[in-house]
Amino acid sequence: MYFIFALIIYFAYKQYSGKNNGHYGFIKFVSIFFFSTSALRHMFCSVDTWGYIRNLQNSFNKSWTEIFDYFWINYFQPGIYGKDPGYYVFEKALGSITSEPQIFFLILALLVFLPIYHIWRNYSASTFQTLVSALFYLTFFYAYVPNSAARQAIAIGFVLMAYLAYERKTKKGYILSALLVFVASLFHQSALIVLSIPIACFVFKKPKLLIYGSIVAFVTMLFVYQMVGEFLGAYNEVYDRYNEVGYYASVGRKPYLSIIFYALFFFIVLLNYRYETEYERYKILYVGGALSFVLMPILWLDPSAVRLVSYFGIWFSLLVPHSIDIAPAKHRTTYVMIVLAALFLRLLISQSNYAFFWQDIPMPSVYL
């Protein structure tokens, strides 16, 4: 189904490309398309999705007193009584009004794709850049955020808002950005990883050190990803699930192709960063994209780790087409063909669990 979604987005790109205001029209189309398909998905699309719906329907069993009595314990000492206390508040508040799955999915989709719409408006300089960014997000992240990981979808929504506030480059913007990251951490503490963005933006004044440093870090991560996974697992049981035996030992395959494609895309960035004339304006693309690239090998430990990568994924998805657009004209067509072919191939061979809510699909076997 995701391959069909990609074809729809591509054909829409062909319709909007070259028209007056076609760029912003295409951004609206893709944002609404992602929002709609996410909101209209079936609650049996994934094990996590159905689990969240069940918890929402049973949220009346948890009292407000219990939620707030253990709120800060759940935040500072996750795992004793619970975790991610912000989500308990959200779940209880929404469950008091409705437990309708499509309303739940609609809220998640709105939190994620409304900020992405504004990021595309601010940082996508052409219809082509929006096309690649959209296909990239569909390929690597859409199935997880917001279509599976509800807590992290909310966290990422607030993180994306924090990016927009941070990029105002004003005192109020920085304060608002910090507050939004804190709110995001109430829904998933892994959101605190985005605090590395301002640090990296301060350290890397020029793109060369950032690019080559990221390559060294990426290669290092290929060998130490299990150590990183053990560190995360000691902090959060989500990432501890497969540390001992390994998730991919049970399913028999690792996402080698995803890692290879990520490396291929970053190689395009490596070849063209020297042509950048507006590094300060696009620094967050380079820094966020580099962090996404460095974290990618952790997928060899557990597919759920793509949620960590997704905090920075939107910037990588924009950095790649931006690098193509600043490249010498004689190479652009080749880069375009490589990137589009890789994304469509990845979508074609990947398993898609998507279904619309009106379709008849079985309940996840783990609940039978």
N-to-C SSE series? HHHHHHHHHHHHHHHHHH
Strand proportion, as a percent range, falls in under 5%
- By DSSP (H or I, 4+ residues per run), the number of helices equals 18
- Biggest β-sheet strands, sense, barrel: none
Number of strand elements: 0
Structural class category: mainly alpha
| N- and C-termini, Cα separation | 25 Å
Principal-axis shape equals globular
Radius of gyration computed on alpha carbons: 20 Å
Summarize the structure.
This protein has 368 residues and is an all-alpha fold.
Could you explain how this protein is built, in words?
This protein is mostly helical and 368 residues long. It has 18 helices and no strands. 71% of the residues lie in helices and 0% in strands. The protein starts with a helix and ends in a 19-residue tail after the last helix.
